[in-house]
Amino acid sequence: MLSWTIVRTPPTGFKQFAPYIVALIELKSGVKMAGQLVDCNILKLKSGVKVKAVLRKVRESSKEGIIPYGIKFKIK
Amino acid sequence: MTIGIAGVYTTKFGELWSQGFASLMKEAIYGALEDANLEIKNLDAIYVGNMLSGNFGDQEQLGAAISGELGLNIPAIKVEAACASGGIAVHQACQAVKSGSYQTVLALGIEKMTDYAPEEVAAGLMQAASEDERIAGLTFPALYALMARAHMQKYGTTESQLALVAVKNHFHASLNCKAQYPFTLTKQDVLNSTCIADPLKLYDCSPITDGASAVILTAKNQQVKILASQVATDSTGLAGRESITEIKATKLASQKAFASANIDPQEINVAELHDCFTIAEILALEDIGFVKKGEAGPRLEKGQFKLGSKGLIVNTSGGLKAAGHPVGATGVKQVVEIVEQLRGSAGKRQVKGEAKLGLTHNIGGSGGTAVIHILTNKGKAFNKN
């Protein structure tokens, strides 16, 4: 984890998750991506900690009921 | 060649519920024409800087919508680069004059934002970011918070130093009758304000604003001239950048601008920097080369960059932070403010001494686009081209 923040004023589609942690992650390959950190003790938040990718619901469901899934991260 | 500034105008910035899009547009355009002592029929082309006219207002083909409203049939073109749309409109107007195709070109920046719910505006603005950032539920305060935390870790920048940017810019806005928030704040007010995206708090953030600004450029010589107009781009997302403790596009655009104007950063007397969040002004001070990396915070603690201090004065308008940030208008308003400073007509906000060189710095998104303009009131001495 390179850096992190806690989103307290979310955009449309993210209200039910707020407040939530978002981090900038560098993968082993060197590729970077932004993603939410879940199941996380806020006191453990520190740049440099190791994380692993997990599959989670990423947004509130659409009117059609489709649940959008995507990648989030957990502290290892 | 010379690009002269014939006329400038900016509307009041704020929650302008009594003024619609057309009213703001006409006030800015006719205001600039009056300042230039020109008539609407003298315009050869219009470039419009705007981001959200399709989302908020359902109006695309904005160039024609504006020229139609004005009863004109001249080329009128919308340009979009998120919060740098205004800077890009001025840049395109410069290119048009330089090409010799047009003699008199108007750059308009305009945005109407406050009629919509904050979460709708937040989602609209996130169109300027990258897909992984949207899926992660990031917002612009949160993107700059990621940069702020990394900068704090690498250079020891503190929340208190960030707060000083807001204190300084609110003081400047208190002298600007066009500013959205013309009142002062203390450092404690900023530090005690509600957390938006840690470590950024409410008073670290620029507001949602309505407003319009216009600049008329001409091939003829004028008191204030544009010496350099440069643009650089980079990944729209933080993950695609080499570093998040600097904005590479700012560095590249500034280097090109200083080279083409044939001056050093230290020669600039007054600057309008893109302070959408307090950390953004710190990044800009360093990346443009006014101070070394990590030095902006300590310099702010010494009281530098504030009206009345020695050396470079930054964001006399109040910046985006306190004058307001109607995204498409901001880059044009910055040029308006520097023109007023170089004409010596900025009133209570006038910088002391003889200001000869001014700079504007306009950013799109979290650093995907950077636009730098260098302006002067001097004669041939600085006219390299």
UniProtKB/TrEMBL annotation, chain B:
Domain Thiolase N-terminal: 5-220
Occurrences of domain Thiolase C-terminal (ranges): 233-376
An example Gene Ontology molecular-function term: acetyl-CoA C-acetyltransferase activity
Superkingdom to which the source organism belongs: Bacteria
Alphabetical keyword list: Acyltransferase, Transferase
Main enzyme class: transferase
E.C. numbers: 2.3.1.9
Name of the protein this chain belongs to: Acetyl-CoA acetyltransferase
The organism of origin for this protein: Candidatus Roizmanbacteria bacterium CG22_combo_CG10-13_8_21_14_all_38_20
